[in-house]
Design goal:
262 residues, 8 strands, single chain
Length: 262
């Protein structure tokens, strides 16, 4: 990589002296974990989509990730994602916004994203539809469900899902594809599993009562719990740190304990 000294030093601190090799090795390890989880669940590897999450990852490293085949990437923050989309235009990458979206960011997001996995209000749905209609395009969306009942998490309740999804038909530019959830933050494996089972139950109910609603996929599971999610029926797992290493501290530093996983 042809980088300035400071940028190169920061990348080496986080990704090691050979960032491409680090990414390749980490991706291979994640793929192996996914394959083993699928085998345990009696599922085929092709049934689960890996969504690499490049939040806080420098553009130069994301470029390497795209070259390794990670061509659909998840991002939490619109401003960061939009900058990467613009800097890496022409490389064939597509972008999925997976974090909570403030209503004033709706217009910016629809200018580059092909997927949004955190739809949690009809007001936001209306704003997205307005911006998308002006551009003459559509957006794949996932409804975020709060399956852990934690007040710190966004998302509608499982009980609200039927009415919410029923209203999405009013917004022709939104294409519902599935449901998304975050498991309980500080819980054991069985509590995490219960969150995923709850999302699965919501999908099953929607498919019985609103067969044409478009909700077919479950996006659930991250670095710490994606294997459990696969066992409970995840169609998409959102994996960041297991591929790109732990994120920087608040002051931007990378300590030895924050180097990428091997």
């Amino acid at each position: 990589m042809d980088l300035t000294g400071d940028v190169e030093a920061d990348i080496e601190a986080r990704f090691g002296p050979d960032p491409e090799r680090t990414l390749r090795d980490n991706l291979a390890a994640v793929e192996e974990r996914i394959a083993l989880a699928c085998a345990r669940a009696g599922r085929g590897r092709s049934e689960v989509r890996l969504l690499p999450v490049s939040k806080t990852v420098p553009v130069e490293v994301v470029r390497l990730a795209i070259g390794l085949g990670m061509t659909t990437l998840g991002e939490n923050k619109v401003q960061e994602a939009k900058g990467k989309a613009e800097a890496l235009a022409g490389l064939g990458a597509t972008w999925s916004v997976i974090g909570h979206l403030q209503t004033n960011k709706a217009k910016a997001m629809v200018s580059f994203a092909s997927e949004f996995q955190a739809l949690d209000s009809l007001r936001l749905a209306a704003l997205l539809h307005e911006s998308l209609s002006a551009l003459g395009r559509t957006l794949d969306v996932f409804v975020q469900i709060n399956t852990s009942d934690e007040e710190s998490k966004y998302g509608i309740t499982p009980e609200e899902a039927d009415a919410f999804v029923g209203e999405l038909g009013r917004f022709a530019s939104l294409k519902p594809k599935g449901l998304m959830t975050l498991a309980i933050l500080k819980g054991g494996a069985e509590e995490v599993r219960a969150c995923f089972r709850r999302l699965h139950a919501v999908r099953e109910r929607l498919q019985r009562t609103q067969a044409d609603c478009g909700i077919t996929q479950l996006s659930m599971g991250m670095t710490g719990d994606f294997e459990i999610a696969i066992e409970e029926g995840a169609d998409i797992v959102r994996v960041g740190q297991a591929i790109f290493g732990k994120r920087p501290t608040a002051d931007g530093h990378f300590w030895p304990g924050l180097l990428p996983v091997a």
